[in-house]
């Protein structure tokens, strides 16, 4: 059975895609893309930056919701006088 801690760790691990996208940006300066025009690499870089911003906002909102649910859960348990795990 998974716990709230396990869920929290899984949520946090999804954030690693932001790090992956940042790493991907570094490849734009590699030999692989050396034949690509500056306009194209700039455009690709802007798309990646957009994805980084998008995922940062989505994951931040998701984690805030998770934190709110945790507070509500523990308050409900206290109100019902349910002992901790």
Description:
This protein is mainly alpha-helical and 85 residues long. The chain has one domain. 76% of the residues lie in helices and 0% in strands. It contains three helices and no strands. α1 runs antiparallel to α3 and α2 runs antiparallel to α3. It starts with a helix and ends in a 6-residue tail after the last helix. The mean pLDDT is 89.
Morphology: rod-shaped
- Based on secondary structure, the structural category is mainly alpha
Number of helices: 3
Q: In terms of per-residue confidence, which ranges show pLDDT below 50 for 5 or more consecutive residues?
A: none
Entry keywords:
single chain; 85 residues; mainly alpha; 0% strand
Secondary structure topology:
Elements: H1 4-14, H2 16-27, H3 38-79
Quick summary:
Helices cover 76% and strands 0% of the residues. The protein is mainly α and 85 residues long.
